[in-house]
Amino acid sequence: MSEQFDRHSGEVPSTDSVFPNHVSSRSLQGRSLVTLDDISLPQIKDLLDRAAYIDSHRREVAHTCDGRVLATLFYEPSTRTRLSFETAMLRLGGQVIGFAGAQLASVSKGESISDTLKTVSNYADIVAMRHPKEGAALVASRAASVPVINAGDGGHMHPTQTLTDLATIRARKGRLTNLTIGMCGDLTFGRTVHSLISTLCRLGQVDFVLISPDELKTPEYILERIDASPTCTYRETSDLGEVIGDLDILYMTRVQKERFFNEDDYLRLRDTYILDEEKLKAARPDMAILHPLPRVNEITAGVDQDPRAAYFEQVRNGMLVRMALESALLGDELPGYQVRKEVQA
Amino acid sequence: MKVTSIVDGIIIDHVQSGTALKVLHYLHVDPTSTRLALIMNTDSHKYGRKDIIKIEESDDLDLTALGFIAPQATVDMVRQGHIVSKHKPDRPVHLVNVISCVNPRCVTSVERGADQCFHLDDSGVYRCDYCDEKAEL
């Protein structure tokens, strides 16, 4: 392929700001984040560094986004992600507007995503949007005149959850490569899984163990992505107990009722994997258990006390990476933070 | 079977047998109002069977989609009854409003006015810009 295509502009660009793999390492200021493919690996690592910096300099960064307004447009239910985006902006000194639930928005009157974003661009400096349709964030980013952050578009992508997961993996294991990572549960509709696999493939040297019932296996395009990575591998299985002892990370997911057209299928599949203290006996003592939350019953409450449980740390990391991202896209520098040279290049 | 030659136009040769009408559809050629000849399921040294499309006065024809719908085809430019050039269609990096995404969860299924956009990925597969679903004819 001689040319690359820019999703955001819909054109073939002449610079290096292209999709999917050859990304620029220039500033994130003014850009949207639809998928982590939009930004370079040094920029991803820089966002993780910024999040760690924010955590240890809460007072210094408290006025980084003074006067800024974040709009949270959530067309489907969310507690954690929306509160995380909003808290992130409030902790940076900015303010928040928005809606949660399509029934509250103009979409209930038939307004398109594009029109909503063109309107909201006049009110807010930055937008975080969740929508049940795949690709909705790309539509939004093309229509908006301010940065748009994809807060989840159907079963497609959820880049800030991936940043959260990466921050947690790095905090627990001290690295993001040379890992055996088990993904367990709904791997068909689990957008967090798709985003995380895609980004880890760019980093390389990860062995994926894909644990799911046959009905909820990983989509072909994600498997092709692993195949395309020279240093990543995968194996598929339906038996968690058989592989749990091999894992550095176990990433549990919920079977999402809202992704099923048929409730009978949901009821049949929702209890396929339940991680409990008994199953954990076969796991390594330093394995980390991640879960994007909310959980239903796929991790029993007894596991929460196990030091391997990292899913509530993820929540904290989620807020920190969203603080890092919001300030970076707005171009509001964190007082005292030094950007590494490869990101400035 | 004898088909009258064209004078000024194009010959799209080596079209996969049985797909010539589909190719016309994706090239937005209306067979009811265009001077053209179709030869379908004729012998081919290379492929066994092939279709051939001859279109007279084709200057306004946009062949961008040909690299997607019939990448193995050959395009012969005909001027004053002679073939003056031959080329293979380029595979377009980007397809706009040529095909529609088949994924019912794709935003294009609900967003009014959204163009149907596909891009060629690194593995040579066309995918929906929005949801990454593989393109299907």
Topology:
The complex is a heterodimer of chains A (about 350) and B (about 140).
Chain A lengths: L40 H16 L12 E6 L5 H12 L3 E6 L12 H8 L5 E6 L4 H8 L4 E6 L5 H15 L5 E6 L6 H13 L2 E6 L8 H9 L4 E5 L2 H4 L5 E4 L10 H7 L7 H4 L7 E3 L20 H20 L10 H4 L1
Parallel strand pairs in A: 1-2, 1-3, 3-4, 5-6, 5-8, 6-7, 8-9
Chain B lengths: L8 E8 L3 H7 L9 E9 L3 E9 L9 H4 L4 E6 L2 E6 L6 E3 L20 E4 L5 E3 L9
Antiparallel strand pairs in B: 1-3, 1-4, 2-3, 4-5, 6-7, 7-8
Task: Label this structure with key terms.
heterodimer, A: 345 residues, alpha/beta, Rossmann fold, 2 domains, five-stranded parallel sheet, four-stranded parallel sheet, 9 strands, 14% strand, B: 137 residues, mainly beta, Alpha-Beta Plaits, five-stranded antiparallel sheet, three-stranded antiparallel sheet, 8 strands, 8% helix, 35% strand, elongated
The total beta strand count of chain A reads 9
* CATH-assigned fold name of the largest domain in chain B: Alpha-Beta Plaits
Nearest-angstrom radius of gyration of chain B?
16 Å
Q: What do the pLDDT scores of chain A average to?
A: 88
The portion of residues forming beta strands of chain A comes to 5-15%
Write structural notes for this entry.
By secondary structure, chain A is an alpha/beta fold. Chain A folds into two domains: 36-156 and 317-333, Aspartate/ornithine carbamoyltransferase (Rossmann fold, 3-Layer(aba) Sandwich); 159-313, Rossmann fold (3-Layer(aba) Sandwich), CATH 3.40.50.1370. Helix content of chain A is 35%, strand content 14%. Chain A has helices at residues 41-56, 80-91, 113-120, 136-143, 159-173, 191-203, 220-228, 240-243, 263-269, 277-280, 311-330, 341-344; strands spanning 69-74, 95-100, 126-131, 148-153, 179-184, 206-211, 233-237, 249-252, 288-290. In chain A, strands 7-6-5-8-9 form a five-stranded parallel sheet, with helices on one face. In chain A, α1 packs across α11 (311-330), α3 (113-120) crosses α4 (136-143) and α5 crosses α6 (191-203). Chain A is globular. The two termini of chain A are 26 Å apart. With 137 residues, chain B is mainly beta. Chain B folds into two domains: 9-87, 2-Layer Sandwich (Alpha-Beta Plaits); 94-128, no CATH class. Chain B is built from two helices and eight strands. Chain B has helices at 20-26, 66-69; strands at residues 9-16, 36-44, 48-56, 74-79, 82-87, 94-96, 117-120, 126-128. Chain B has a five-stranded antiparallel sheet with strand order 2-3-1-4-5, with helices on one face. In chain B, strands 6-7-8 form a three-stranded antiparallel sheet, with no helix packed on it. In chain B, a hairpin with a 3-residue loop joins β2 (36-44) and β3 (48-56). Chain A binds chain B through residues 1-5, 7, 10-12, 19-21, 112-114, 131-136, 138-139, 153-156, 220-221, 224, 228, and chain B through 91, 93-94, 96, 103, 105-115, 117, 119-124, 127-134.
